[in-house]
Amino acid sequence: MRRRMPSPAMVVALIALVVALSGTAVAAVDFARNAGAVDGHSAVSASASLKRSAGKLVAMATAGPGKGRLPGRFVEDVMRGGSTSLSQYIRAVDNSDGPVVPLAIIPGIGRLDAQCRDQDPTPDIKSTQTLVTFTAFDERGVNVSRLLGSDIGSSREGVVFTAPKDQPVPIMQFADSLFQVTLQARDRTVFLTGAARPDLNRTAAAACLIFGVGFRVG
């Protein structure tokens, strides 16, 4: 029986099929090799050395105090940080220290809380005093430098101390005052500046107004 040669059209179709299959195989291998890469750059873990991570993406830490963050060694000598508002308007409670209101919560450092105390024992007449406390989060404690009121204008030395973890320490107990506070723990530093003053003082609607800003580096 005489074999028939494939037609030219069949030859062309077979060649096209082989080329297509070869291209798919190459693409599959290339996809597998670059799975998880972004713009062709593969990622290394947060614990990788600087030498190994050069030219690659770096994953965020998956555990520990830096969970969800990029380790600082990868961005050394680069200015980094953030800012937050400290503004609060707190109504005084008659003949009471009033509720504790969060003023600022700073990850890795601690928290500032405020109260609006009524100093006048007369019913329905409130004379306010602003109370601000700081509670450290770091196990080693947080270094605190504090300047209040006239100390700022006269460039006097501030009060410097270490705040132990989980123990609220007083920052301010005045009716009205300027404040400047620097907090430092490990490689993180925060600078807070602002003022507190009474509003509608010696009335039934008296309140404490606190306003300022906090800056964080590290």
Number of domains: 2
- What's the order of the H and E elements? HEHEEEEEEEHEEEEE
Please work out how many helical segments DSSP would assign: 3
Total strands: the figure is 13
* Beta-strand residue percentage: 35-45%
Give your account of this protein's structure.
Helix 2 links the parallel strand 1 and strand 2. Strands 3, 4, 8, 9, 11, 12 and 13 form a 7-stranded antiparallel beta sheet that branches. A 4-stranded antiparallel beta sheet has the order 5-6-7-10, with no helix packed on it. It has a two-stranded parallel sheet with strand order 1-2. It folds into 2 domains: about 10-75; about 80-215, no CATH class. With about 220 residues, it is of the alpha+beta class. The chain has 3 helices and 13 strands, in the order H-E-H-E-E-E-E-E-E-E-H-E-E-E-E-E.
Task: Give a quick summary of the entry.
With 218 residues, the chain is an alpha+beta fold.
